[in-house]
């Protein structure tokens, strides 16, 4: 399975069972109330925060 993350989107390419497993892992990590947009925003913020540290 491959996944690609843009600034405002996530694209997953794979079989349905692989995508279900990935979504289940995210649900375990981020909680059942989290939306995909919450995950994208958090990852984008973490990416920018880590790039500021030298």
From TrEMBL:
Superkingdom of the organism of origin: Bacteria
Listed Pfam families: MciZ
Protein name: Z-ring formation inhibitor MciZ
Record lineage: Bacteria, Bacillati, Bacillota, Bacilli, Bacillales
């Amino acid at each position: 399975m491959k996944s690609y993350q843009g600034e405002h989107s996530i694209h997953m390419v794979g079989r349905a069972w692989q995508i279900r497993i990935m979504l289940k892992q995210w649900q375990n990590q981020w909680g059942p109330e989290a939306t995909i947009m919450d995950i994208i925003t958090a990852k984008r913020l973490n990416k920018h925060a880590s790039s500021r540290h030298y």
